[in-house]
Design the sequence.
């Protein structure tokens, strides 16, 4: 058993943390959000130059990582700093782009963004719920396409055979975002991250990812990677929220003493710390089983997303409550982390979805 | 015992329903139903409609233009108004300041201020909390120093809800810095347009500038704007807080929110079936409904005691605790019910009229902002930690 980081990973974590500490604070993030820009392009490029994206791809694809622990380390660091930049698409796309070395090179350099266009307006969290048709051109609508308005390419799930909820018959296609027949409507999410709705009208789809009709397994793999990334990012945001809360409990004076001296709050911060350690272990569990056989991996996917989602809501709500009014203001950093913590539950399946899925995967 | 309302109360409920059906403007109720953001005009329009009916100030005596309702009647009105998606009545003048003036103000103050509250000429806001005085309100520092016929006020208030619409603010100020902290506080009425008063909006976690900081820089306030006696303000403030805590359970809000969550759960699908049929979601929803059913009866028990003339004790703190947790859970359920639709931020829809189209579902734009906004329920009006301390002290002493 060894839970220590390798020297290479520790170096990456140190350089990322240092760069983020020097280049991102709450004021700069608010400036970006107020400017209407989807994210800070300079920050994204700077982080790409440090190898942040390369760490999400294996060596044979031109990166230097791509394993569960690599993904967890990068995203926890990003989450702790509260970045808005488009790294999650790379985590999603990495396992799908094994045959696209040129494109991966551009992604690693931060010059291309490839994102998954999968969720349909009425599909909720069911991965198999695909109606967008490939006959053979694509027609239909995708929503919650992360950074869809900034992406250079989309990986689109489309139905070639079968009914709406059938796992069989889903195919994946790689499409440049300047393809004819695409209407991309930019969205800003409640937590400040960028997204888009994409409408396809007879869009040409020439480049397949994987075998025809076999897209569901690939979607599961991509989503497993994304859930690890998002859970680790959420863990980082928990740590940030915890640090702010701890500092506040020691600084804030009411009734002539620091509020952290009240046992009512001491017990609650103790619960928060305990739950965050649970979340850290859940992230490690998934990181360690990302390359395990499908059934084992997917049990960990659902277990981790469920536990992290529960803890994230608790941490957000308790951190705000222990701060009082100041914790609810846009000006104070906690509000950003609180929004990320809560809204992450709405991506790739919420706590209920993954509880139900865990029961099914466990033979229930 | 008898859990049923009396015939007179049932008749009253019917009268309220009919009034709401005919007098509540559809565009206003749609805004409330969709959790859009209401502006000053929206509130004032609804106030004027209620005032025409004589129902704007439920608890005031009839001779001052109030409705003279009993606690149960007030509760029935709240329930029906919430279910009809009526805007809330802005409480600062009507249910916060006026009871204090009626109890402790001069005849001149009552006769001057109450009609102006009803007519909408005055919009009051509350100057209580300060950056250093939240849960420990009595440690407030804003100073008022007597200078002839005036007080000179210096200091800062914060979390002043809807202060941007107000022309008047009632403040707790320190008039005796040497007395024990609760004993040197006075209750002062201040015109917001007095030189030296400035307001700075605070944007909250949901993107809305609902609260403000108010700064006082050598603000001259005539001494006749003092309410009651100098240095007795804490007594009046506590009296006001008990008024703030009536309807703190928010049963009406919760009933309306529960109905909204149920409707959304029947309209959105999960795995091709209505979400309402998903056992995991259904269990969450049922759990809150069960809690709400019991809390509604707790609320009625306390109302009945109030009608019998008994002053509420720690029960109002218990109501605040349970009531806020239930309301917050319902905002959480609405967010959950909408799934991925809750993600996009749609300020144009929330601020707009009828002509903006929501993305996803009509309840989607308001869901996450309401969830974040309603975190305030367990913070303001005496945080839930303070309420727990009150409950514990009532049985353990100390």
Sequence:
């Amino acid at each position: 058993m060894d839970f220590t980081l390798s020297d290479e990973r520790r170096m990456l974590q140190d350089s990322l943390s240092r760069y983020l500490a020097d280049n991102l604070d709450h004021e700069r993030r608010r400036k970006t959000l107020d400017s209407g820009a989807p994210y800070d392009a300079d920050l994204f490029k700077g982080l790409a130059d440090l190898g942040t994206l390369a760490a999400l791809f294996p060596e044979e694809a031109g990166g230097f990582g791509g394993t569960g622990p690599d993904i967890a380390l990068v995203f926890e660091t990003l989450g702790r700093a509260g970045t808005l930049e488009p790294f999650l698409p790379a985590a999603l796309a990495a396992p799908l782009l094994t045959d696209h070395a040129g494109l991966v090179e551009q992604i690693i350099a931060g010059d291309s963004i490839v994102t998954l266009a999968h969720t349909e307006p009425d599909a909720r969290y069911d991965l198999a719920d695909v109606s967008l048709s490939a006959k053979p051109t694509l027609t239909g609508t995708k929503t919650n396409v992360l950074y869809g308005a900034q992406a250079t390419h989309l990986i689109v799930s489309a139905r070639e055979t079968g009914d709406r909820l059938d796992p069989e018959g889903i195919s994946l296609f790689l499409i440049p975002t300047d393809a004819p027949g695409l209407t991309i409507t930019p969205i800003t999410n409640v937590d400040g991250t960028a997204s888009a709705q994409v409408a396809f009208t007879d869009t040409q789809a020439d480049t397949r990812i994987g075998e025809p009709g076999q897209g569901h397994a690939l979607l599961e793999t991509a989503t497993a990677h994304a859930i690890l990334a998002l859970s680790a990012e959420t863990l980082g945001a928990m740590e940030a929220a915890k640090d702010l809360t701890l500092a506040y409990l020691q600084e804030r004076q009411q009734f002539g003493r620091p509020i952290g001296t009240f046992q009512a709050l001491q017990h609650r911060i103790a619960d928060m710390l305990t739950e965050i350690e649970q979340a850290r272990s859940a992230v490690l569990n998934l990181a360690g089983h990302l390359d395990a056989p499908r059934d084992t991996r997917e049990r960990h996917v659902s277990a981790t997303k469920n536990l992290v989602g529960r803890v994230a809501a608790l941490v957000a709500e308790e951190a705000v409550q222990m701060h009082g009014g100041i914790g609810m203001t846009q000006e104070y950093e906690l509000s950003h982390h609180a929004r990320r913590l809560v809204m992450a539950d709405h991506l790739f399946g919420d706590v209920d979805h993954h509880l139900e899925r865990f029961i099914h995967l466990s033979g229930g | 015992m008898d859990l049923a309302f009396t015939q007179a109360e049932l008749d009253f409920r019917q009268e309220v329903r009919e009034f709401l059906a005919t007098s509540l403007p559809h565009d206003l109720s749609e805004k409330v139903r969709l959790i859009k953001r209401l502006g000053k005009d929206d509130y004032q329009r609804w106030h004027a409609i209620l005032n025409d009916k004589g129902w704007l100030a439920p608890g005031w005596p009839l001779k001052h233009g109030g409705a003279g309702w009993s606690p149960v009647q007030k509760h029935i009105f709240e329930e029906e108004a919430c279910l009809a998606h009526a805007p809330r009545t802005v409480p600062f003048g009507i249910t916060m300041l006026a009871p204090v003036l009626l109890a402790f103000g001069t005849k001149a103050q009552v006769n001057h201020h109450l009609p102006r509250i009803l007519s909408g000429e005055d919009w009051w806001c509350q100057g209580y909390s300060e950056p250093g005085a939240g849960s420990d309100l009595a440690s407030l520092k804003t100073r008022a120093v007597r200078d002839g016929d005036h007080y000179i006020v210096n200091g800062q208030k914060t979390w002043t809800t809807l202060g941007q619409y107000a022309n008047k603010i009632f403040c707790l100020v320190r008039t005796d810095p040497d007395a024990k902290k609760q004993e040197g506080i006075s209750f002062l009425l201040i015109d917001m347009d007095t030189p030296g008063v400035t307001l700075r909006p605070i944007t909250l976690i949901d993107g809305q500038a609902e609260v403000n900081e108010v700064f006082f820089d050598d603000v001259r306030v005539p001494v006749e704007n003092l309410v009651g006696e100098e240095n007795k303000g804490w007594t009046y403030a506590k009296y006001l807080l008990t008024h703030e805590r009536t309807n703190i359970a928010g049963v009406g809000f919760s009933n309306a929110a529960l109905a909204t969550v149920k409707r959304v759960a029947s309209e959105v699908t999960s795995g091709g079936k209505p979400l309402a049929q998903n056992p995991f979601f259904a269990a969450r929803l049922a759990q809150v409904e069960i809690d709400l059913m019991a809390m509604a009866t707790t609320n009625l028990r306390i109302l009945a005691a109030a009608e019998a003339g008994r002053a509420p004790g720690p029960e109002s703190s218990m109501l605040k605790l349970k009531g806020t947790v239930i309301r917050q859970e319902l905002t959480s359920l609405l967010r959950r019910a909408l799934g991925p639709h809750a993600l996009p931020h749609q300020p144009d829809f929330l601020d707009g009229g009828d002509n903006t189209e929501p993305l996803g579902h009509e309840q989607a734009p308001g869901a996450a902002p309401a969830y974040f906004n309603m975190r305030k329920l367990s913070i303001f009006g005496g945080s839930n930690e303070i309420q727990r301390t009150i409950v514990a002290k009532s049985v353990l002493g100390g």
About this structure: Residues 279-307 of chain B form the longest helix (29 residues). Chain B has a mean pLDDT of 94.
